[in-house]
Amino acid sequence: MAKKSKQMRAALEKVDSTKAYSVEEAVALIKETNFAKFDATVEVAYNLNIDVKKADQQIRGAMVLPNGTGKTARVVVFARGAKAEEAKAAGADVVGEEDLAQRIQGGWLDFDVVIATPDMMAVVGRLGHVLGPRNLMPNPKTGTVTTDLAKAVEESKGGKVTYRADRSGNVQAIIGKVSFDNDKLVENFKAFNDVIVKAKPSTAKGTYITNLSITSTQGVGIKVDANSL
Asked: Which residues form a coiled coil (predicted)?
């Protein structure tokens, strides 16, 4: 087992691993235990009591955080003609068709979000083996397959986060940066939690949120009391 750094040990001493903190306490601890020398990203992680093998218990979607993520996403768009011009006007970083697909096939992956119009999905579909494993494949459920490119680009640039439950029922999402005011991190956390709660499948039985935690890049994980949200 790797030896913990002095900074990590000091951070761990400030956290009671047996306690589930309120959202306000957890956010304050994230700041207190952060030792990264850069503006660390803050993430939340859920474990949900769902069976993703069942079609009606798969959870996936997107939402725009009220205070953004603290990061400006690099957005590429597959579109042609007037829609391509719409995407460029909205601030897309790269817009293209077959040329863009070939560039990605060649190994270029310097982007965070991929958006496409429905008519371009035949081209994008051939990139499934590249985009799929990186969770970058456009999907109508996340608003990244759309004809309203202006809205999709602006939301992606303005703090949109996507989420998807993995095979174990885990969902992770960015809710901001350590530099955010506590109130803004709490507001983002609560807004994302509302989305997760509303996404509960009607067929899911028992306790829905079985574990919830918050962490920062290189930081410690802090358990959160879901009821405090």
From this structure: none
Domain, as residue range, for 190: 15-68+160-223
How big is the CA angle at 150 (ends 144 and 151), to the nearest 5 degrees?
60
CA dihedral 104, 109, 114, 120 (to 10 degrees): 0
In the listed set 139, 158, 177, which residue is the last one of a domain according to the structure?
158
- Kindly report, residue by residue over 31-70, the tens digit of the pLDDT: 999 888 899 999 999 999 999 999 999 999 999 999 999 9
Domain-located, residue 130: yes
Contact predicate 113/144, CB 8 Å: yes
Residues 148 and 99 in one domain: yes
Q: Is 113 left (phi over 0), alpha (psi -120 to 50) or beta?
A: beta
- In this predicted model, what pLDDT tens digit does every residue of 89-99 receive, in sequence order? 999 999 999 99
* Domain shared by 139 and 172, yes or no: no
Sequence-ordered list of residues with C-beta below 8 angstroms from that of 135, at least 6 positions apart, any chain: 162, 164
In a domain, 7, yes or no: no
Report how many domains make up the chain.
2
pTM over 0.85: no
229 in a domain, yes or no? no
Q: Backbone phi, then psi, for 76, in 5-degree steps?
A: -115, 145
What residue type is assigned to position 13 of the chain? E
